[in-house]
Amino acid sequence: MKKLVLAAALSAAASTAFAGSYAEPVIEAPVVVEETAASSSAAGVWVPLVLLAIVAAVIAAD
Question: Is 20 left (phi over 0), alpha (psi -120 to 50) or beta?
C-alpha cells in the first residue's frame, strides 16, 4: 500500500513538472522616449508681435 501511495505521489509530481510545452519567451522591445529640443520662449513671442506689426502697418497705410 505504501508503494502505491508513493507511486501515485511521484506520478502527480512528475506530471505537473512537464505540464505544457516549452515556448520561447516573448520579450517586448524597450520603449525609448526622446526629448525634443526645448525652444526658447522668446521665439514664441516674436512671431505674434511681427504679425501684429504687419497688421498695424496695413491698417495705418489705408
Answer: left
Cell numbers at 20, concatenated:
505544457
Which sign, positive or negative, has the C-alpha torsion 54, 55, 60, 62? Answer: positive
- Low-confidence residues of the chain, pLDDT below 50? none
pLDDT of the residue at 56? 92
Q: Residue 45 and residue 49: Cα distance in Å, rounded?
A: 6
pTM above 0.85, yes or no: no
Given this model, what pLDDT does residue 4 score? 83
Q: What are 51's three cell numbers?
A: 504679425
Task: Read off φ and ψ for residue 20, nearest 5 degrees.
Answer: 80, 180
Cell numbers at 33, concatenated: 522616449
